[in-house]
C-alpha cells in the first residue's frame, strides 16, 4: 500500500511519523498465535512485523526501495520504545524488539505524537527587507561649475526626457546611490535567495521551516562566486578545509586504480581500509553536513523528489545556504560516492552489500540529521542522500533564474535616476532641477520640439549655394516630402 505524499510544511518529520504508524496499524495482519501452551488473539510475531513494515516502507514514496531490512528492524525497536507496539505481556520501553517468533500486539491507547506548538503564521513580508530605490541618497551639488548650455531639442530627445509627463510634471532631483557595499550585496542575496526558496517549496511562509537569523548572506555570496573550474567551493581559510590525508584517501577511491598519489603499497583489502579512513572522518563531525538549522528545509524537499526539476532547483537554492566548508565537504563526498558506485574496476568494498547501498548506509546520517534525533532520521536521510548522490552534478549549480534576478536588481540600484514625487523613473540624461509645467505647455513643447529641427533642415538646404537645385529637390523628397511646397516657394 502506497501512502499519499504529505505536502511540504512545518514539522514534516512528525507528520511522517504519525502517517507511518497509521499505515502500519491499519495494514498489519493480526491473528491468533500460540505461545507457552496459550493462545493470543490479535497478535503478530516480530518476523511478521519486519516482513510487512519493510515492504510497506519500500513501496511508500516517502522512503522508497533503498530501505533495508535492518533499518526496518531499527524502526520497530523505536516503535516498541515509543509504545506504538508492546509485547504480548504489555511490556514496552525497556524491552528490545527482535526479528524472531516473539509475540507483539498494538496497545489500545493512541501512539500518535502531538504536534509542537506552531508559531503564528506570517506572510512573506517577514523575509529580509530588500534594498530598494526608496533608500536613495541625493547626488551632492557641485559648486563652481558653469551651467550647461541649452541644446536644440529634437523630437527623440524630447520624448526621452518627458515620457512620464502625461500630467503636470512635479519637481524632481537627480539621485544616485553611493557604491553598494559588500554588506548590502550580502543582504540582497540573502533576501532574494530566501524568497526564491519559499516559492520553489510552494510555501506561504518559511515559519517552522527556516529561521532566517541563521542564514548568512556572506556564505551565499561565497558559494556563488568562490568556486574552481569544476564548480567546487574554494575556501579562503585553509584551516577550515579537510585534512590532507582525508582528501588523499578520497582521491584514491574516486580515481581507483589510478588515484594512489602517495604510491602506497596496495595489499588485499587496502581499498576497504581507505574507505574506513574516509568514513571515520565524516562520522566524527559535530553535526551533519546539511546542518541542524536546515534540517526542516531538506526534509520538506523530500515531497518534491517525484518532480526531478523542481527538487533539483530546491536543492540548488538550499545548498547555497550552507557554510562554505560544509558545502565543499558535501560536494566532494557525493562525488566520491557516485564514482565508487560507477567504478567497475574497484574491488568489492563489502562481501554482502552492493556499493550503492553501502555508500548510502555509510554516509547518509553524516549528511542529514536533526539535533533532537528524530525517529525517522535514518530513513529520511537514506531517501534524500540517494537522490543527491544521483544528481550531484546539478544540485551544486547556481539557479540561473535567481542569479539573473539578483544581477538585475543590483544593476537597477547602481543607475543614476531622476526621482519624481510618487514615481521612480530611470533616465540617462536629465537636468538636475525640473520646472513644473502645465499640460498645454507640455503639448506646445512637443510640437515645437518636432518642428524646429525640420525648419532648421529646410533652411540649411536652401542656404547651401553649392548644392544644385536638382539635388536639393531629391534630398527634400527623401527627408520630408510634405514640406515640398514650402521648398518651392522659397527657392523660386
TrEMBL record:
Q: Where is the Rho-GAP domain?
A: 172-396
User: Per its UniProt record, what Pfam families does this chain match?
Assistant: DEP, RhoGAP
Which GO BP terms apply? intracellular signal transduction
Q: Which InterPro entries match?
A: DEP_dom (IPR000591), Rho_GTPase_activation_prot (IPR008936), RhoGAP_dom (IPR000198), WH-like_DNA-bd_sf (IPR036388), WH_DNA-bd_sf (IPR036390)
PROSITE patterns membership: RHOGAP
* Protein name in UniProt: DEP domain containing 1B
The protein's organism comes out as: Acanthochromis polyacanthus
